[in-house]
Amino acid sequence: MANTRTGRDTWRCKECHGWDYRGVDGAYGSGDHRTGIRGILGTRRTEQELVTLLRESAPGPSGGHGYGARIPEAELRNVARFVLQGTVDTTRYVDAMRRFQGDATRGGMLFRQGVGGVASCGSCHGDNGLTDPPMASMGFDDFPGAVARGNPWEFLHKVRFGQPGYVMPPLHGRANEADLRDLGAFAQTLPMARP
Length: 195
Ligand code: HEC
Ligand code: HEC
Prior knowledge:
Blueprint: H1 13-17, H2 47-55, H3 73-86, H4 104-113, H5 121-125, H6 144-150, H7 152-161, H8 177-187
Helix pairs in contact: 2-3, 4-8, 6-7
């Protein structure tokens, strides 16, 4: 176990299973987030089995997660549905060199003009990704260019599902695989920080 995070961060699914959903087989198989825990992609459990797995206490051989004390049943069911229907094989988007396998030129057009009928990335983040989006937290510096290059799997997840607690519109169900790859490829050409 190389993952030394404690407190509230340890409750986040991604700390154990990875932003790429692949656990030990993915990006968290090494480095300071290393946990050695299996991924959630391609689980054979049913929705009901997953709800139970997440609700019941004490991590152990049965894999109980103990979220039942804090997260209502209906939300656990939503999380189970995400596991079954929302996860994707991220190797179809990001190669071993952490590069999005997309068309950056087309991605730039989507970034500026929008996709899926929601506000464009550029309208909130600026065309170069360095503008503070509406109601951003103080000192926000996780610019699209920084996240896309630093952690392409986190970028993909947040573009698909939004940023919890903020107004960013999720593209899951609105953008197709090529759109997401292209957006990622373009974002990896953006500056990571303000000059
Ligand atoms: C502190 C570490 C930790 C966190 C946080 C965590 N898990 Fe797990 N999870 C595990 C372990 C360990 C197992 C493996 C149990 C086993 O192998 O039987 C597991 C198993 C699973 C499985 C079953 C995989 C399979 O092959 O069937 C799913 C699905 C899952 N977790 C989803 C989640 C979700 C969703 C969250 C966040 C709400 C989450 N986990 C948070 C440690 C964690
Ligand atoms: C309606 C405004 C809005 C739109 C449209 C929008 N975002 Fe965001 N985005 C935000 C806000 C607000 C945050 C969170 C700011 C904060 O954490 O303080 C955010 C956060 C982010 C983050 C950082 C997440 C993190 O880890 O902190 C990335 C990356 C990002 N957006 C990329 C995109 C991309 C790519 C698009 C287009 C597909 C997009 N955003 C569209 C408002 C928007």
